Amino acid sequence: MSQQQPRRPAGDHPEPIKYGDLFPVHGDLAQKPITPEDAAALQATETALLGKTVKGGAAALIQSAAAKNEMAGLLDHGGGDGGNVDADEVSITQREMPGRKVITESVGGQVVTQHSERVPIAPLSTMNPREDVGGGGITIGEALEATAIAVGQKPVEWSDAAAIQAAEARATGRMNIAPGSVAAIAQSAATTNARLTRDEDKTKIADVLKDARLKMPADKPATRQDAEKVAGAEMRNDPLLTTHPTGVAASVAAAARLNENNK
Description:
- By secondary structure, the chain is mainly alpha-helical.
- Helices cover 41% and strands 10% of the residues.
């Protein structure tokens, strides 16, 4: 599906870029301004299911539009221009075909992007929620690896380490931190980073969570209860008592929602 160029309204009073300016949608969705919260929801869903933010996909397009709206001061956060799209309103389907797969992204039940990617004739998909771990869904380990893609260059902080520890505990059923585990590596990174001043010297999320599943003795599909525990751990250890919009808690939550939707 080819993308349209944004259709901007004429006049002296600029308006925020809306869904109808970017995508061939209609109704209420077309009139909704695109916000950073929407971009975060799209990115979390893409990374949880596909393992990456798709080039030319909905998340990339919305991120650009949201940044422009924010920089231009066109969003009224106090007047309801927060997140206009919830993660459970976002769906991604993949249709396997010989030598390629067709990815369709929908928001609020309306298709916003569709494109195809080349794949090997016999692909081994590690992110398919219907095939992994006995068909149970996207696992916590996969959500951690998706975080490494979404915010890989973010320095590891205490909130990240706490969320990773909670996620690994939920995945393995073990509360203790084993040497060499993902949680142990994250805690060590957060401790070291707290002593450093330059971000370029700090250990990044990708350094800890890349290939996370290989460092975990067990794994399991993410559930809503897992997401709540991880979010609680991340919030309690954040100075502002919040979670990163595309961090560990967001990735586990996106995986849990997709698993519930695919039951």
